[in-house]
Structures are given as structure tokens and as C-alpha cells.
Amino acid sequence: MLQPLITQTHFKKLFWAIGLSASCAFLLSCKSGYNRLYEDSDPDENAPVCSGNPSNGSLSDSGVKVYDLISDLSCEKIEDYVLSGQSVGFGNEAGDDDEYRNYETLVEQLASDTGKTVAVVSIDYEKTELFTSGELDEANEVLIKHHDKGGLVSISWTPQNPWVDTQSDKLSPIDDSDLAILYGDDVDDEAYIAFNDRLTLVIEKLKALEDKNIPVLFSPFPEMNTTTYWYGAHDDNTEVNFKALWKHVYTTVNAEVDNVLWVYAPRSGTTSQRVSALWGYPANLDIISGISYSDEVNISDYDKYRDQDKPMGMTRLAPATSDGTFDNNKYVTELTDRYPYIAYWIAEHDTDNSDDAGTDNIQRSIYRNTEANELMNASDVASAETIVEEQWLKE
Length: 395
Description:
33% of the residues lie in helices and 12% in strands. By secondary structure, the protein is α/β, with parallel strands linked by helices. The strands form two sheets. The chain has an eight-stranded parallel sheet with strand order 2-3-4-5-6-7-8-9, sandwiched between helices. Helix 4 packs parallel to helix 6 (190-211).
């Protein structure tokens, strides 16, 4: 007598195995809301833990997706990719006709030449001047355009010194400034008013992006761990006061908008370039994304950043050389080999110095340096097109 091909016990085991396989496939394709498959490999024990949640519990769904993407790239749940990025200047420079600092040249012309659009585009809402509300609307138009292509949006805020209204250099430290005034109770103080009026405008423009469902990688007070800026680590400021100022900005912004990921952007370099690697490291942040200028693509404080167990990027990573001879291929070779937990980098914009006698133009963009096509088409470099094709931000 022939035996049944599948006994009752065998049938139960087969049914269990099929169910388990289907469940695993579903989980792999839907983790954290992403339609993507993860590499079937052992976790890297040296990677940042990155197991936390965004600092703002009310962060928008689209913001959570960006946070998860950067976390997964940084912690190598998505392997062998780094997001490319490009700064396009300050304020409405991103949308004007200055080909050294605008989106049209540094991003769209690069895309025309290479077939790839950088994944992340960055501007600064201030630094060089107090841009008007209308000028920041023009800046936002560029960011909206990039988001609509599938890219990510980064905004730095380098506020000018609220105690200064006459000197040409409005970023440098001055004597007798007191950060505590800016988050204190004296709302009639002129510096308090100047700083918080600018903060109100920043929030207004962040809200305009929120209304378009656009998350923002927001890095206030970049290079705070140097003596370069009035808010940074010079003798008149204490680390305690800086952290309190950060908290004031964090609380004030989050009370109005829920589209912001908080990026701590210290300077990485020698002790002559910064006071310490993590001066001013705040309690409320989402991503550590440093700033470094190096022809060797060195990130000297990389290990210290990694040890904080946060997702990691580079708010600015660019050559020290500025004559257009930098080999762009170094970004991918160095980041993937030496700094594999960096999820994204943003290259510096250029500067046209043709009106300055004897001063060379500054050329640090991907577009104006060598091997741009090879870089943008490298298998390890993610573009805006990669984000769309891989469906990294889809439901």
C-alpha cells in the first residue's frame, strides 16, 4: 500500500514553514514603512547603535521616514550607499543668476552633464545678510523644486550677531555679549528682540515647507565648537549657555512646526581649528553631521561622532584646495572605505571673486571639480533618482 505523499504532521510543518517565510518577506519589505529589502548579513558591531527615535515625538510622518532612512544608511541596515549633496549658497542665492551659487548650475547643470541629481540640497537662511521674507520665499521655491524631484532638503542657520548693527563682520565674537540674554526674560532687550525676530522669520519659512509636507535637516549654529562665530566657543561664552540657547531655539521651533530634524554640525579638524570635538553637544538632537575641509577627505573626529550612537552625516565636506582640481572620486572611495557610517555628505558651493583684484575664484562644488561624472554614477553614490527608484521614502 502506498503511503500518503504528505502526512498530517508533514502538512503542518510545511504550512508553518510557508507562513514563516511569507511573514519574514513581509517584514523585510515593510520595515520602518519602507518598500526595500535589507542585506542578509550580520550587523556591524562597530556601527552606531542608532536605535533611538527622533527627538521630537510629534515629528511628521515624512520627517520620520527621512530620519529612518539616514539611520538605516548610517547604521548599515542599508549597505553600500552614501547620499550625495550640494550646497547652493545663502538665502535666495540658490535661485538667482550667480552661476557660482545657484541650483540651476550646481545641481541642474550637473544633472544634465551626468544624468544624476544630487540627493541632498542645502542652503543657509542667513550668514551673509539678513534676507527678507520674500527672499527666503525664493530660497524655499528652490528647496520645494528639489523635494519634488525626490531629494532631501537641508537648511543651516548661521545667525548674525544680534549685538552688532554697524560693523562689516557681523558673525565674529565681540566683547560683553551674553548668550543668556537671548533666551532670558528681558524681552525688551535690543539683542533679545533682534535674535528672536530672526528666529520667528526662520520658523515662518520652516512652516511654509511643512505646509508642503517637506521635512528639513536643520542645523542651527554650525561650527559652534570653534571661536569663529559669536555664538561659539570663545572666552565670553560658556558651554552651558550655548546649550541653553540651543534648547531655546529647539523648543521655540518645535512649538510651531513638526517637520524639523535637528542636526548638530561641529567643525572637525585639528585643535587649531576647533576647541573640542563635541563642545556644545546638546541634549536635543537627531543627527551628528560635522563640517570638514580637507583634500584627503579627512574627518578627524569621526570616531567621537560615532561613539554618540546617533545617525551621522557631513553638513559640509569639501576640499581645502579651491582651484577646481580636486578629484571628486575621493568622496566615494574615502567615505565607503574609511567612514562607512556617514549617511550623506554635502559639498561646498563656489564663490565668484572676479570683482576682487588678485583674488582667485573659490571652486569647491562637485560640478566645478574633476571626475564629477564618475562620482555621480558610482554604484555606491545615491542620487535623488536612487531615492525614487529604491522607494526609500515611500509608504
